[in-house]
Amino acid sequence: MCGVMRVSIELRGPLRAPEGGKNLSLELPSGVTVQEALAKSLKYPPEQIRHLLVTRDGESLPLSRKLLEDSRIQVFLRLGGG
Amino acid sequence: MKRKIFSEVSKGVRKVDAVALATGQPVYTDDFDIPGMLHGKILRSPLAHARIKSIRTTKARRMPGVEAVITWRDVPRIAVTTAGQGYPEPSPYDKFIFDNKVRFVGDEVALVVADTEEAAERALGAIEVEYEELEPLLDVRKALKKGAPVVHDEKDCRVIIPIPYEPRRNLVARVDAAIGNVDKAYKASEIRIDREYENHISAHSAIEPHCSLAYLDPNGRLTIVSSTQVPYHVRRIVARAMDIPVKRVRVIKPRLGGGFGSKQDIVLEPYVAAATLKTGKPVKIRMTREEVFVSSRTRHGMVTNIKIGAGRDGTINAIDLHALSNTGAYGNHGLTVACNVGMRTLVMFACSNMRFTSDVAYTNLPNAGAYRGYGGTQGILPTACAIDELAVKLGMDPVDVLLKNIIAPGAEVPILNELGEGATTGAPRIGSFELAACLRVGSREFGWKRKLARKKDSGRYRRGVGMSPMIQGSSIPYIDMASAFIKMNDDGSFNLNLGATDIGQGSDTVLAQIAAETLTVATDDIIVYASDTDLTPFDVGAYASSTTYLSGRAVKKTAEKVKELILKVGAEMLETSPDRVRLEKAKVIGSDGASVTLKQVGTYSLYEKHQFQIAACESSTSEESPPPTAAHFVEIEVDTLTGRIKVLSYLQAVECGTPINPALCHGQVMGAVVNGLSYALVERFIFNSRGKLLNPNYDYFKIFCSRDRLPIKTIFVPSYEETGPYGAKSVGEVCINGPMPAISNAIYNALGIRMFSAPFTPEKVLDAIAKQGMK
Amino acid sequence: MIPISISINGLKKSLEVRPAESLLDLLRRSGYKSPKFGCGEGACGACTVLLDGRPVNSCLVLAATADGREVVTLESLGDQQRPHPIQQAFMDAGAIQCGFCTPGMILAAKALLDRKANPTEDEIRRALDGNLCRCTGYEQIFSGVKMAAQRLRASGKSAKKK
């Protein structure tokens, strides 16, 4: 395995990609972590990827988990404030 | 339903601060004076939308008694949100302590610091400001349209989490949450309801005006004493705004004269901080009542659209709710109030096709913020009224329509994940949820069915009945955190240090009761100290109905840790092992009946042998937000000649788990429902065509007084929440949501006229009668 | 500055007041913090004190006009060790939440009970209608006043005696 892989990201709740969409399909370097994938797709500095709950097939993923080819992940925003 | 016997919990124990308040002790922020203290007065914009072309302060600075005049040029330009929320805040960083632009009539322009209030006030008039007036945006329906004035055209406003934010279009936030296929299910429904409702902007009107006092302690640390609901958020945000480290700031909340959400924002604190840092002296700022109305915070006004599709048998197949929210000149609480509109409505229903969408927009109107109900109030109006309309169309009792469609306790609620608060893997569940019991008990006690079936009155006075369900939450899962610290004293008493914020609701008392219950002592043996960022552990503050539930969990956890230590020491004293003793009625009792009192344990642990301080500090977050629920029923009489509505009787059936202090619980729901009735019947803001509030005073902004007869009956329906401390949920907000929809429905029942916006003043009622005619 | 002679809670004081100064401001800067600033316009009643026995909004009384008169604030009614029966009743009836309206409410209640030992609900509502409360919805405050009236009657004391 080398080079790039495809990752599908489904944004839920009020999350949006910079272009406005909720479903993203990206080519990312192999072995990228969840946090890196989100930082790149949402165009946010990695340290600001907080309060995001990431799941794959209903299972929660830590931000440090390395993704595999053809990963389909869901991203939820945990909001607080009232 | 479990039957629990408690000794301190479930008792109407007297408030721990009752005697201080009853005897008028000087315990509120404005009661503190420090020698050498200066007074601050804020110059506020007379225009709704303008750039500050120039600002000359020389004359003002020379006036007698004036020590400083601060404008946007004197403070670093640092964007913050004033929203008292956990970090990272889901509100835009769009506020600058002083800016070179003003965005509503009443926006901050400059600060004068002088030796007396009068001297500061006089100097305000000497500040020369040249404004370039801009076209104001005063109608939220126009805010997102092309060509609307742009409220926030500055380059440096932004959001710090990846959510939609388009200030160039005046868009503060967008929510879009759906399950199933709403459009298809709605189109396929036999009965369809499609309506627009409106909630107006209104004021919290806490009787204590906002007041903050800052000073440098002997070591030069900035200390702020403030009437705030959120001392920890104040600390963090003021440190940020002043560009100083958090460790150089201390925030103390003394007694508070009510908040209701108006003090869940950083309102005066940055100003006293700036003044103290500039002068080196203590500075106090207290708002006038006019400033509280105009320049503190308001409820978000909203325009809501609801569509409900149902079958002939009353099964609801589709619910589509949209809210256009007016967040005023700044975006604090914009997104989260909007999310709550969907959360405190759709979550009630076992419907698989639901959608909630919302656009939150800026306008050049006063700054909307947190207000008891927090979107739940705005959401329940269209929802409960559309259900009522559906029931009428079906010839059914709306209570029966609700019973047919609401979720059961323990149900899965998939839409919660889409709405954001407390997202979790898999489908989130609701624990205890006794709305059905509230509906049944309330309906029965009110005589609802009989009154509903009553022949309609004709003639001048017409009676009508209406009802509404409502839910709220108890804290915000995963995000919010509370902690407590308990230590034991020689006499068997305990100090309970809490971050939790008593804003008058009595949380100091309730939390002491929880600790007392766990430690098997009297509430009187618990000494409470709270809300001091140096001395009490972290707590997000009094909002989201969290203190009983979340802070209560932290207190119980802490008390249990302390109990373990007590048993260990007691066992040592009784020369046995900890697993062979128990704590009961303030004694450690061995299996052979020998015992030591807590006083003996306390003395032994501090003075006698293997001495150590028995103490613990524990924290809690929650994995759920168990909703308190209620059903409200009202009978009104409409005088069709004057339009006046008289409330003949009002019944609220509420469930909130175990009421830790029934007297305080009762106080909360009474206060909430009277506030809700006031909002529905008499409160309103009147703006002129240039965005100026014309009635910032009690003469023309009415709230209920003792002469307003509101015959209200309250019933607590039993329930028990497993995840709550001793079965409790919170209850502070929920009942404010009921009155407006219940009365709107009652007006329909009386007159055959639906009213889609409050307040239901005599003029509005007469206007509706004239336009629509009575049936 | 205008010199005045005023009795505050039974103590005779010689004070100097500014021409436009309110009685509320005078009292608060003289150390009597129980009357509160709530609106400054005589609408909320948080500043209520008794002036020659009658409840007034002290924010609307010019301090200079209090010359030669008697002012009573909540501080005179009782203290933490021995609260006045009205204060005790308010505590027991759950009539105090944030407590900000409490000093005004208690003095308005005292002024009523000084005149009428057994007021009707209507009379209680009227007596308190100048005092706004946003926390309680008023019901528990009425209970507190009724409880105070009952206890004062039972003990044979009038509200006037401490």
Task: Walk me through this protein's architecture.
The complex is a heterotrimer of chains A (82), B (775) and C (162). With 82 residues, chain A is mainly beta. Chain A is 11% helix and 35% strand. Chain A is built from one helix and five strands, in the order E-E-H-E-E-E. In chain A, a hairpin with a 2-residue loop joins strand 3 and strand 4. The longest helix of chain A has 9 residues. With 775 residues, chain B is of the alpha+beta class. Helix content of chain B is 27%, strand content 22%. In chain B, helix 6 crosses helix 7, helix 9 runs parallel beside helix 10 and helix 16 crosses helix 17. Chain C has a five-stranded mixed sheet with strand order 2-1-5-3-4, with helices on one face. With 162 residues, chain C is of the alpha+beta class. In chain C, strand 1 and strand 2 form a beta hairpin. At the B-C interface, helix 1 and helix 18 of B face helix 2, helix 3, helix 4 and helix 5 of C.
Strand order across the biggest sheet of chain C? 2-1-5-3-4
Please, what is the average pLDDT of chain C?
Answer: 95
Number of helices of chain C: 5
Q: Assign an overall shape of chain B.
A: globular
* Overall radius of gyration of chain C: 15 Å
Largest sheet of chain C: 5 strands, mixed
Instruction: Tell me the overall shape of chain C.
Output: globular
Q: Could you give the order of the helices and strands of chain C?
A: EEHEEEHHHH
> Low-confidence parts of chain C, pLDDT < 50 over ≥5 residues?
none
- How widely separated are the two ends of chain C? 35 Å
Mean pLDDT of chain B comes to 96
